[in-house]
Predict the structure.
Amino acid sequence: MATALETVRDYAGGGEYKYGFTTDVGEDRAAVGLDESTVRFISNKKDEPTWLTEWRLDALRRWQGMVEPDWQKPQYPTIDYQAISYFSAPKSPDDRPKSLDEIDPEIRKTYEKLGIPIKEQELLAGIAVDYVFDSVSVATTFKKKLNELGIIFCSVSEAVKDHPDLIKKYLGSVVPQGDNFFAALNAAVFSDGSFVYVPPGVRCPMELSTYFRINAAGTGQFERTLIVADKGAYVSYLEGCTAPMRDENQLHAAVVELIALDDAEIKYSTVQNWYPGDRNGKGGIYNFVTKRGACRGKNSKISWTQVETGSAITWKYPSCILQGDNSQGEFYSVAVTNNHQQADTGTKMVHIGKNTRSRIVAKTISAGRSDSTYRGLVKMLKSAEGARNYTQCDSMLIGDRCGAHTVPYIEVRNRSSQCEHEATTSKISDDQLFYCRSRGVPEEDAVALIVNGFCREVMEELPMEFAVEARKLLGVSLEGSVG
Amino acid sequence: MLKIENLKAGVEGKEILKGLNLQVKPGQVHAIMGPNGSGKSTLAYVLAGRDGYEVSGGSVTFDGHDVTEMSPEERAAAGIFLAMQYPVEIPGVANSYFLRQALNAIKKARGEPEVSAAAFMKLLREKAAVVGVREDLLKRDVNFGFSGGEKKRNEILQLAVLEPKLAILDETDSGLDIDALRTVAEGVNRLRSPERSFIVITHYQRLLDYIVPDVVHIQAHGQIQRSGGKELAGELEEKGYDAMIGAVAA
Ligand SMILES: Nc1ncnc2c1ncn2[C@@H]1O[C@H](COP(=O)(O)OP(=O)(O)OP(=O)(O)O)[C@@H](O)[C@H]1O
Ligand SMILES: [Mg+2]
């Protein structure tokens, strides 16, 4: 992944102060708890316009009237929302680890296995080092190129100031403030995130990524991403990172909104490897994310690809609203759970326009004492004449103490639509393991090999430089799952 | 090279090998014949180190080392190869990729440098031509949707690439058509060398017409009952197991 990331890293590194990601907030910290004053504090700190403050407050009021959902499969202790601090400044260098020696050896081992260069390891571990980036000029070139094409790629905070019309028009237009409990919470207190706008007819020539930006800014907890592809535009966006990032916030409630206008295409790829907790299920991130894309224009396309290996609990359903005629939605997912992890993930495809198509390929791998659920909705409205869906859900079990469940919901309201659904459940077989091992492939590599084969269709959807690390990641995540 | 003494082994508490003796010298080809259920595949699995196959007595030494405590991958690195009676399918994993992983894993275990993708493809194409594996099978998933005969040839391709010291062929001839049998046998013959030994498990003398063994054994009831030259196979074909080992069976 070296070259592409190098570019992005340099860009993000250069952008760190340029784009105000680490604004100097010093000892500023919103008091623990959440009420109107917290929201005003955040909005004020970020120097936001009144309309956005009101927008947040509206979200807060809706959130206050909501009850936390409990229909999901994963169980977790009650979260005390008044015990969380909703705005914390990035750590000062004094509080950060000074060298890799201070980092949990387990995490370091993982970095090594993934082949992450030392410098990136230090970045990921949040070590207080002043980085001199290899070449500021790369960052400049990158930024310049995007500028020339009229592509906007910046933080949401920056976009609020520089592109208020776009933000006003699109923020919350796919995931409204009151959409659900966690989305409302996010709308009220979101810290920052990325904004992308690709103008009509422009094909973004490089993969855009939040990788280092988010880490540096520590905005991971209530992140908000907004991506707009105007008519005939194309963009591929990468979220996340294969290396486990250090994060002390347990609850992550992000929101991602995608908008594709006529003939536009957005490809959104995620590799999620947040801290899953220890072997005994202690600790770990709760990853409760709302991701939704709107294919507003005709012939538009939104494609979600996700590789989810981290977090104690993953609970999310990247969805597509297929409004434009002939629009297409895709969802490719690999969800790996090991030890005590739980995942409840899947997608929603809502067909509204004529001849809309959706394709769902979900691969679930459970090991240890983990539990994984695929939950998916395919809804075809009366207007969605000639709509088609293909769904394939495959589960693989490793060992006999884990669980895998498939919960498909299908609602078809017209006669000309078609839904196809296939589901399989298999166990990683002793035959396969022995076969690989007898050819010299060590047991853990054999598991990785077989699991990667099982997930191939999804892995192939990942951008090349992501795919190589993601392959390794599957193996690392399943370590200790056999034998 | 391989020395098996009074080997007792079984699966799920059931003893299948009941004091088996066998000695294979470098460069030799040994054929093992025997009725269904006599424990031939069990012997092969025990030699390859499959989990669940417990050794309860006797010894197996390979190149002077006790192998009974070694993992399958360690045995592979030591130079033991098993062409299986029922080759396994691995969906989603390209045949060529799998074989490169295997070769490099073995090289790594031996402290040798790994082979680059390009060098490997060249090697693989050469070997595939020798053992009669079509190029398109290299790109397909490991054994997935292969015909019975294609699977068997693929085993021999792996053998040719991994170049073990001891190759055990468990009924590689079953399921091969006449032409394939000849190609596979020719492939095996080309791999014969003073350092490389073979144990060929088969039900048919025909294979042994092509791969001429130094020694033929008849296995029954978990033991080697008789051993002899290649004429033993012919005799067996003529008389059948009952006549040859009937006394023991009774
Ligand atoms: N997992 C198992 N559990 C119980 N019995 C087993 C198991 N595996 C093999 N056996 C038994 O062990 C005996 C020997 O089997 P094995 O497969 O070694 O025979 P074989 O000589 O290879 O036969 P064939 O010529 O049919 O291939 C058979 O009776 C078989 O049913
Ligand atoms: Mg057999």
